[in-house]
Amino acid sequence: MNLILLGAPGAGKGTQAEILCERLNIPTISTGNMIREAMKSGTEMGLKAKEYAENGKLVPDEVVIGIVDERLRQDDCKNGFILDGFPRTIPQAEALDRMGITIDRVVDINVPDEVITRRVSGRRACLDCGSTYHIETKKPNVEGICDRCGSTLVQRKDDLPETVLERLHVYHAQTEPLRDYYAAAGKLLVVDGQQGIQEIAEQTLELLKG
Ligand code: AP5
């Protein structure tokens, strides 16, 4: 199954992708994680992306489309994949169509802005493996340490309050129109993102069966 997870910044796309990737046995492709890895290793793409990502802006379409195109050609995507954070603009969705990729379902995780700001301010992230935690709702086993890889958890620079407001603004202007784009194609499923993490995953899996 080729799946897209849509939703505002901090709606829980990464959290759901972790669960769905295990349950559906297909890889997750997170453009946010790929961009953060490139920033950390100082690659040319990472240096280009840094200024945008850290200020809550979208990285230019041509940069992101290139990395997704390359990633989707890898063997592990042959039986399906979960796109987390891509597409984020109509031109990105059109580029995906031009790649000849058929998307089966698009799951929109629906969360109001005021809940988003609370979630994101409590988020702690592992910049090594991309896992995310929350100081109240998803604590690691050992405070400050990633359960999966043992690295130190940090607060992302783009999770600071003023940057989150900018990310929400960008989301409403550039990403939200994708709901209509995929609804018109008959592919959109909407889940209530204010439920517990497991409940959202179960509701999503149920909807995907239909
Ligand atoms: P990216 O990492 O994709 O950022 P995002 O979409 O803003 O998504 P987040 O990682 O902030 O949130 P999420 O929805 O995954 O939520 P999470 O599961 O962590 O991208 C970062 C940047 O890279 C972008 O701003 C942009 O610059 C660039 N970029 C990436 N893709 C791009 C593209 N395609 N085009 C251009 N630029 C691109 O959950 C949030 C918190 O809430 C966590 O702490 C979690 O534990 C908690 N939580 C989750 N679910 C629940 C729940 N149900 N109840 C309570 N708490 C919950």
Observed structural traits:
binds BIS(adenosine)-5'-pentaphosphate; 7 strands; Rossmann fold; 5-stranded parallel beta sheet; about 210 residues; about 50% helix; single chain; 9 helices; alpha/beta; two-stranded antiparallel ribbon
In short:
With about 210 residues, this protein is of the alpha/beta class. The protein contains nine helices and seven strands.
**Biggest β-sheet: strands ordered side by side in the sheet:** 2-3-1-4-7
CATH superfamily: P-loop containing nucleotide triphosphate hydrolases
**What shape does the CA trace take?**
globular
Bound molecules: BIS(adenosine)-5'-pentaphosphate
Say what the CATH topology is: Rossmann fold
Tell me the structural class: alpha/beta
Mean of pLDDT: 95
Name of the top-level CATH class: Alpha Beta
Protein architecture, described:
The chain has 210 residues and is of the alpha/beta class. Strands 2-3-1-4-7 form a 5-stranded parallel sheet, with helices on both faces. The model has no long low-confidence stretch (mean pLDDT 95). 48% of the residues lie in helices and 14% in strands. Helix 4 (61-72) runs parallel beside helix 5. It has a single domain, classed as P-loop containing nucleotide triphosphate hydrolases (Rossmann fold, 3-Layer(aba) Sandwich). The two termini are 13 Å apart. Strand 5 and strand 6 (132-134) form a beta hairpin. The structure holds BIS(adenosine)-5'-pentaphosphate. BIS(adenosine)-5'-pentaphosphate (AP5) binds at residues 7, 9-15, 31-32, 35, 52-53, 56-59, 64, 85-86, 88, 92, 119-120, 122-123, 132-134, 137-138, 158, 167, 196-197, 200.
